Every structure is written in structure tokens, then in C-alpha cells.
Amino acid sequence: MADVYDVVVIGGGPAGYVAAIRAAQLGLKTACVEKWINKQDKPALGGTCLNVGCIPSKALLESTELYENACNNFADLGINVGKVSVDVPKMISRKDKIVSELTGGIAMLFKSNGIDWLQGEGQLLADRKVKITAQDGSESVVDAGNVIIATGSVPIALSATPLEGDIVVDSAGALDWESVPGSVCVIGAGVIGLELGSVWRRMGTEVVLLEAQDTFLPMVDSAVAREAKRAFEKQGLEILLSTRVMGSKVKKGKVVVSYQDAEGEHEKTFDKLIVAVGRRAFTDNVCASEADVQQDERGLFHVNEYCETNVPHVYAIGDVVRGPMLAHKGSEEGVMVAERIAGEQSSVNYDVMPNVIYTHPEVAWVGKTEEQVKSEGIDYQVGSFPFAASGRAKAKGDTTGLVKIIRDVSNDRILGAHLIGPSASELLAQSVLAMEFEATVEDIAHTIHAHPTLSEAMHEAALSADGRAIHIANRKRK
Question: Is the Cβ–Cβ distance between 152 and 320 less than 8 Å?
């Protein structure tokens, strides 16, 4: 007889494992199906984010930022360190250790919460039965009162640039090189491409990013995107927009990339090529046809605002449903679904979803861009403050960027906050919290911020929206 669970989660990434933990906390008998096999050829939880995405990339970004500072910026602070070298294998080993500790931590959380980890590939059958196919090919079936699909996403492949060894790689492969390539081409100048390009550029690699779109970071407020492009190009990243990649060929241990732009066709040889053109939902074979769960033309599952599919008691969360592919978005959906299964009234505020690019300077935003607000005909005002006027930023020697707040004139609410600069990912939380609680720009302006801190830039931007910033000249209002 098949095991019976209150909740079975298919997928153990940030959406799935969080959903499983919250369900178990609420007293529901819970299992999580996960098939991931890590570098050590062992089963692991955490999905793409913890194993080959968010966490390992941040570990390398942190290491390489410190290395670059030691090489180029410490002297300005009065610190002489002599010749600095980088031990790439040790850097990769540290990254792997962090991944192992965190994924192992999730396994311990499963154990402490009484969650059954069903190792293998999960497939939803009819009547909320879930088939688990283990690594050895053996199959088992469990019954579920509720099923949560959280199978995440995978890198989009390009037929013109097939992956080949460690020369032509996707985002995961670019996290495992153990020597510094002389040159790297990155296809895609989005979040993933910029972060990976930054990692290797800091270690001395010549990095060229080829982007098909004619606008740099089109999802970002244009003022912030312009500032970001200037900063990245000043650092040495070569960003080519309106560029179509035609193909790639590996020859004698290098890769020849063919691309086309307004000036015609070009060929350039690189040591490595990273394909980072985005991700697609992983929904292949997740649901048997008899399960009758509806999907759209991109493979995403149709869900309502509470992540309910067309099949009662079957939910889908994270990268396999509408909305941005963000780990924290999937996690919050997982919490919401678990709580609703347990009978609680829970929801996700999709209008207040933070976004971050972990380059240096960091880029972070929440809410509407100025372009969106303008197109919607909203009466708005902008307040901004440059980090160049921040005492703490000057003390850190890190003054690139600004904070920008967009205010609804009719009610003083925050429509959007856009940051580029030091610790932008952390500073953004203040705006997210304010928007979640429907605080006003005046509320931020009246909140005492410690001095000297980077968060004062947010305070000054709020004051600037009302034409009363203290540490910069205010624009004259019409």
C-alpha cells in the first residue's frame, strides 16, 4: 500500500524546501521529492540556487571583490599589501564548502521537522499520486492530500552555441573553472551574465558581453541602468548591445564566436564562452498527461493568485509559474501555499518584490520604474541622492551610484525605489518594508537614521522628493 501524506512537494529548491518546512511546522505530514546529485555524486537539497546558482555565485563574487580591492584599492586607503595573488582552486573549494554546509543544513532541517526526503525524480499522476523514480531506476508511488509542484528552472540552451566541455559552458559550468582564462565571451548581459562576467573580469580576464536587446537592463529604471553601464564599462567589461550571436566553434582549445551587429558580421576567438541568455521553467515530464494540469505555451503551469492550478489540491510555485524567477519569490509562495493548505488566510504581495543584481556596484529595485509611472499617467515626484555625497560612502572609498525614490503625489506613497551603489541589496529592504506597510515618503523622511551610515542616502532621497534634502542642493520645483 502506498504511503499517504498530507503534502508532497515535488522539488527541493528554495520554493520547495521552504514549502515543505512550513507545512511540517503546521502539523502536516510532509514529504519532499528531490533528484539533485551534487559535484560529489551525492544526493543534495537546495536546487539550483544553493548548488549552482545564487549561493556559489555570491561566494565567488565576494572572493573576487576582495581580491580586486587588495590589488587596486587598498593603497588608496593607506594599506600596502605588496604583490597579491589569487589561488583559484582554493577559491572554488571554499565555494563548494559553503554550498555543502548550506545544503547539508537543509537536510538537517528536514530531519528536525520530520519531513521525509524522497530521493529521486517526482512525477504527478492522476488522483494526486506521485511516482518517484530513484537513481537506480526503481519506482515507488505515494498518495498525497495536496501536491505542490516546485521543480524550478534550467538554463536556456542555444542551438547555435552547444555546450562543449569546460570551454563552452552554461552558468553552472562558469562557477567551476580552476584557472583564470585570458578571455571570456558571455552571451547575455542580464543579471546572470553580468554577475559571472564580473567574477572573471576581477581576476584579470578580458570579458565581452554580447546582448541581443538594444537597451541595457530594460527591466531597470533607466537612470540606474545608465549609471550601471557606465560603471561596468569603466571597470573593463565590454558590453555590446543589439548583437546577434550566429554560432560558435571550438578549435584547438579555444572558441570562435560569430556574431552580427549593425556593422556586419564578426568573428572573435576567446578562451571560454558562457551562455547566459536566461532560464526556462523545468516542467518536462513533471506531470503525467492523466494528471490534467494545465500549462501555457512556455511550459508554465496556470495558477491563480494563490498558486492553485486547475486541479483541486494541486499547487505550483516558484520558477514554474508566472512572475520573476527569484528564489525569494518562490519561497514566499511556498509559505503561502503551505499556510492555505493548513486553513490559514495567506497571500503574497507581488507588487513589493525586491530585485537585486550582485555586481559591484550592486543594483537593486522594488516597485515601478519612472518610465512605468510616466506611461500610466500617475502624478509623481522623484527624490534622489548620490553616494558621492554620503560621508559613510566616502569613508569606505565607494561612492559610485545613487538612491532614487518615486513618490505618488496624490497620497505620498512610494511607487518605486531604485538603487545602485554600495550595499544596495541591503539598503533596499527599507523601501520594501515601507511599501509593504504602505508607509509614505514622509514617514521615511521623519525616521531617524544613524550617522554616518549608507542608509542615510535613503533618508536624503526621501527628503529630496519633497525638495528639502540637507546634504545636496535641491531642484527647484515648478
Answer: yes
The pLDDT score that the predictor gives to residue 476 is 75
Q: Is 34 annotated as a binding residue?
A: no
Q: Which one of the listed residues 302, 313, 449, 451 is annotated catalytic?
A: 451
Structural domain that includes position 209: 168-277
Alpha-carbon distance of 54 to 438, in angstroms, equals 30
Residues 6+ apart with CB under 8 A from 317: 15, 16, 19, 148, 149, 150, 307, 330, 333, 334, 337
The 3-class SS string of 398-441 reads CCCCEEEEEEECCCCEEEEEEEEECCHHHHHHHHHHHHHCCCEH
Check the annotation: does 156 bind a ligand.
Answer: no
Report whether 58 belongs to an annotated binding site. yes
For residues 113 and 11, state if they share a domain: yes
Q: What is the pLDDT of residue 475?
A: 82
In a domain, 324, yes or no: yes
Residue 161: inside a domain, yes or no? no
pLDDT given for residue 477 in this prediction: 66
Can you give the pLDDT at residue 478?
57
Domain finish residue from 252, 277, 302:
277
Are 381 and 325 part of one and the same domain?
Answer: no
> Known catalytic residue: 451?
yes
* 33 and 134 part of one domain: yes
- Tell me, what's the pLDDT at 2? 65
Tell me: is residue 378 an annotated ligand-binding position: no
**Strands 254-261 and 264-270, how do they pair?**
antiparallel
1: Cβ contacts below 8 Å, ≥ 6 apart: none
Same domain, 23 and 36: yes
| CATH number, domain with residue 241 | 3.50.50.60
Same domain, 456 and 381: yes
Whether 460 maps to a domain, the answer reads: yes
Res 342: pLDDT: 98
The answer on 382 and 338 residing in a single domain is no
Structurally, how many domains does the chain consist of? 3
Collect contacts of 346-350 with beta carbons under 8 A, ≥24 apart.
347/305, 347/306, 348/305, 349/436, 350/323
Q: What is the mean pLDDT of each run of 10 residues along the chain (478 residues)?
A: 88 98 98 97 97 98 97 94 95 98 98 98 98 97 98 97 98 97 98 98 98 98 98 98 98 97 96 98 97 96 98 98 98 98 98 98 98 98 98 97 98 98 98 98 98 98 96 83
- Lookup: cell for 256: 570562435
Sign of CA dihedral 347, 349, 350, 354: negative
Asked whether residue 264 is marked as a ligand-binding residue, the answer is: no
